[in-house]
Amino acid sequence: MTATAIAAYACRSAVSKTMDCCDWGILADAVKGKRLAVNPARGIENLPRKTAKRRVYLSAEDVARLADESGEHATLVLTLAYCGLRWGEAVALRVRDVEFLRRRLSVHENAVQLGVHHAVGPTKGRKRRSVPVPAFVLDQLATQCQGKASGDLVFTTPCGGYLPRPRSANGWFTRAVKATGFRPSPRTT
After folding, report:
1. Given this model, what pLDDT does residue 153 score?
2. Run of H or E including 131
3. Smallest Cα–Cα separation from 91: which of 68, 74, 104, 109?
4. pTM for the whole thing?
5. Distance CA 180, CA 69 (A)
6. Domain interval for residue 110
7. Residue 131's pLDDT is what?
8. Residue 148: enclosing H or E segment and its boundaries?
9. How many other CB atoms are there within 10 angstroms of residue 141's CB atom?
10. What pLDDT was estimated at residue 139?
11. Mean pLDDT split into 10-residue runs, the chain, 189 residues
12. 73: closest CA among 184, 178, 174?
């Protein structure tokens, strides 16, 4: 089957990922292990080109509307939008990580959701970083941290556990996006 025929049946990204896996992965290992003389995937032409996804950038007014529509998660939305944290980094923040006097967040943990549980480990880059926090977001974080111990999570479930990702179909984030009317919708990463 030619690359053109494959492209007729599959989306571009799937073809690209499959060819990368074959060219640089499985078949390259087979050549290295002397199971194949040459890599048959090397040099295939006419592969579909990757197209960049359209990115959605929100204005400050849009972020404020989204935060307002997010109800009890407004501070989380503001933190994600203005501090540039990934979802797992935000939900792994502890009160001690909010440096109020320096107006910074100490980011060093990531909570990955595995089914209904979370695995906590280092951040994606495996490096600690200090992130600036705008004053108005810091004020919201102060309210969020009020009455919590330094080791407590900043953003939690009602039981005090790690906050799960919003469900795509009917979760709080989807409802907030629909209420604001954004098209296409922003995503959480």
Report:
1. 94
2. strand 129-132
3. 109
4. 0.71
5. 7
6. 60-180
7. 95
8. none
9. 23
10. 96
11. 53 65 72 84 73 81 94 95 93 95 94 86 85 96 95 91 83 89 66
12. 174
Q: Is residue 78 part of a domain?
A: yes
Could you tell me if 111 and 164 are in contact, meaning their C-beta atoms sit under 8 angstroms apart?
no
Most distant CA pair in the chain: distance in Å?
67
Q: How many domains does the chain have?
A: 2
In this structure, are residues 162 and 92 in contact, taking their beta carbons and an 8 Å threshold?
Answer: yes
State the CB neighbour count (10 A cutoff) for residue 171: 14
DSSP-based three-state secondary structure for 90: helix
- The DSSP code sequence of 20-84 is HIIIIIIHHHHHHTTS-SS-TTTT---PPPP-PPPP----HHHHHHHHHHTGGGHHHHHHHHHH-
Q: How many CB atoms lie within 10 A of CB 147?
A: 8
66-71: long-range pairs with CB below 8 Å, 24+? 66/176, 66/177, 66/180, 66/182, 66/186, 69/175, 69/176, 69/177, 69/179, 69/180, 70/172, 70/173, 70/176, 71/172, 71/176
Q: How far apart are CA 189 and CA 16, in angstroms?
A: 22
What pLDDT score does 39 carry? 81
Write the CATH number for 84: 1.10.443.10
Same domain, 31 and 115: no
Helix and strand totals (H; E) in the chain: 8, 5
